Amino acid sequence: MKIRGVRYFFSEAFKNIFSNGWMTLASIFTVMASLLVLGVFMVLSINLTSMAGDLEGNYQIVAIVDEAINDDGLLTIGKQLKDTPNVDSVILNTNEERLATLKERMGENGELLDRYQDDNPLRNMYLITLTDLSKSQETVDIMEDIAGIIKIQQNEESIDKLVAIANYIRNFSLWIIIALAVVSVFIISNTIKLTVYTRRKEINIMKFVGATDWFIRWPFIIEGIAIGIIGAGASIAIIMAGYSAIVNVVNSLNIMFFTVKPLTELTGIIIGSSLGLGAILGGLGSLISVRKHLNV
Predict the structure, then answer these.
(1) Spatial CA neighbour of 227 closest among 183, 180, 275, 292
(2) Are 110 and 168 found together in one domain?
(3) Does one domain contain both 31 and 97?
(4) How far apart, in whole angstroms, are the C-alpha atoms of residue 216 and residue 193?
(5) Using CA atoms, how far apart are residues 146 and 202, in angstroms rounded to an integer?
(6) Which of 50, 79, 109, 123, CA to CA, is 20 to 30 A from 181?
(7) Residue 125 is part of which domain span?
(8) pTM of the model
(9) pLDDT tens, residue order, the chain (296 aa)
(10) How far is the C-alpha of 75 from the C-alpha of 253, rounded, in Å?
(11) Of 257, 236, 245, which is closest to residue 42 (Cα–Cα)?
């Protein structure tokens, strides 16, 4: 493609953008609204998925160790647990630490436990987090065979609920984003179709004088991409400003087990996905819209 042709396409595209003021503005607002809804849900989906992952990652299985096991034996058991497939982390909670925690919880009555300081009835135990909770039973079966472990404590019902919730959030988020993307393409293509319709005579004249289909298409496609990018830019500004305010409010409330990702972690995703989708949806909408008027 010659440079002169490229210049023509861009000049025509931007001339059309400014010459169709209200129609262009309507298209930009449509793109902005579509990407705003899509962006808000995408950010919500990312945070919900992250929370579901945190719930899974924070769930701990308890491995209780035989009181006859000495310090070297504890180290050996810890190493075997860490080497077990699907184990993410292993933390030793000694009987001394357990007794101190229990005393702290009892507050003023904690001194009643002082007599157990030299004859601690509590057992050492390991707190274990898993990489994939859905494989918890397979992992527990392996850990139960480790010499020195007398009991594995896990709540299978809670694990099943956590896995179900996490999977539901991930699947629901994916399908909603896909549905919103399809709706956005439909809305944008119909909005841009109005601008194309107002120039149907111009398209027909170009066809009659011998212009190729792609020569006619390119200015409209570039126009659609430009409209999509402008609309995306507006939606990005609104999403980032709103999300920043929400993060500040949530952080100030300091709600346990409810955290949101900082804006810095999502900035690249918000900008990249919004600009990319804006350009794709705008260009695709124009391509779909102009195709009908090329058949003359």
Answers:
(1) 275
(2) no
(3) no
(4) 15
(5) 80
(6) 50
(7) 67-147
(8) 0.61
(9) 556 667 766 776 667 666 666 767 777 787 788 788 878 878 887 777 777 667 666 778 889 898 888 888 899 999 999 999 988 889 988 888 887 887 787 777 777 777 777 777 888 899 998 888 778 888 888 998 889 998 888 776 666 676 677 677 777 777 877 777 677 667 666 666 666 677 677 777 777 777 777 777 788 788 888 888 888 888 899 999 988 888 888 777 766 556 778 888 888 888 888 888 888 877 877 777 777 666 64
(10) 41
(11) 236
- Secondary structure (DSSP) of 154-218: --HHHHHHHHHHHHHHHHHHHHHHHHHHHHHHHHHHHHHHHHHHHTHHHHHHHHHTT--HHHHHH
The total of structural domains in the chain comes to 2
Report the C-alpha gap between 267 and 187 in whole angstroms.
26
Write the CB contacts of 228 (distance below 8 Å, at least 6 apart in sequence): 31, 188, 277, 278, 279, 280, 281, 282, 283, 285
Indicate whether 18 and 86 sit together in one domain: no
62 domain residue, yes or no: no
- How does 84-101 read in b/e, with b if 16+ C-beta sit within 10 Å? bebbeebebbbbeeebee
For 12, 188, 271, the CA distances from 223, given in Å and listed in that order, are 8, 13, 20
DSSP state of 135: G
